[in-house]
Design brief:
Length: 238
């Protein structure tokens, strides 16, 4: 951890109002991002504060995209702390924090793969070896898999749907925090997220749901070209 005076410390503490963004000449070109016109723009949006790379909040919101191809190493401890902390600024009715996250790294990814394979066979005993192997390898697609769980807490004013939405918002915040630091990330579910064998194996209670598997790592290859959405057609004056 850096001294309280260092810019890094400001980032770790998430004290964004105190951040002084450096001049554009200090922009940091991320070497892991390819130099297509879109990606060149993306890398220019990432600033360096000491050892920390991060993006202006609006740039992160406007430029984020999923990265399916990820590789090691595991993000630094500081990056991980920034990601985890981002979950806690999700909108959250009655501040219930209706979420928890399982951190799956290293050999635990193989254990998760075994669980996926077990779930596949439990569902379909005739599953062929290739399909079983595919399930087993899924968690190896990134150095870090966060199992994001909506953890319902009974409350007179906050129905389950609102708590699920908060857990989803926390997951999206972490996706953005990863992206803002130049990491690649992808939110995945598939039938495994709803599978009873997987839920039991991960120790979920009956009230809990997996809202997503967040795959996080180093961008391996490029990021996709962003299309300009037809934003206006989704907003009607009322
Ligand atoms: C709850 C949820 C579950 C998702 N599950 C999957 C999945 O299992 N497989 C997949 O390819 N994409 C999945 N996606 C979509 C991707 O994460 C991604 O958002 C989508 O491919 C669009 O790309 P973009 O994020 O770059 O806009 C899921 C998204 C959400 C919100």
């Amino acid at each position: 951890m850096q001294s309280t005076q260092s810019p890094d410390k400001h980032v770790v503490n998430g004290a964004l109002s105190q951040l002084q963004f450096p001049a554009l000449k200090d922009c940091f070109m991320l070497c892991s991002i390819s130099t297509s016109p879109t990606n060149a723009g993306l890398s220019k949006a990432i600033y360096r504060f000491g050892n920390t790379h991060c993006m202006n909040a609006l740039d992160a919101l406007h430029l984020r995209s999923s990265v399916p191809k990820l590789s090691g190493p595991l993000p630094s401890q500081q990056m991980l702390e920034n990601i985890y902390k981002a979950a806690f600024s999700a909108a959250d009715h009655a501040v219930l924090k209706p979420w928890r996250f399982l951190v799956v790294t290293g050999g635990s990814r193989e254990k998760l793969g075994e669980l996926f394979a077990k779930a596949g066979v439990a569902k379909d005993a005739s599953l062929n070896q290739g399909a079983i192997e595919k399930l087993r390898c899924k968690p190896l697609r990134a150095p870090l898999v966060l199992v994001c769980i909506s953890s319902y807490k009974p409350h007179p004013k906050v129905p389950e749907i609102e708590q699920d939405l908060s857990a989803g918002a926390a997951t999206q915040n972490m996706l953005l925090a990863a992206f803002a630091q130049g990491l690649g990330a992808m939110w995945r579910t598939g039938s495994l997220a709803y599978d009873p064998t997987v839920k039991n194996g991960l120790g979920l209670s009956v009230e809990e749901k997996i809202v997503g598997f967040l795959y996080i790592g180093t961008i391996n290859g490029g990021t996709k070209q962003l299309c300009e959405p037809d934003i206006q057609s989704y907003f009607q004056q009322w």
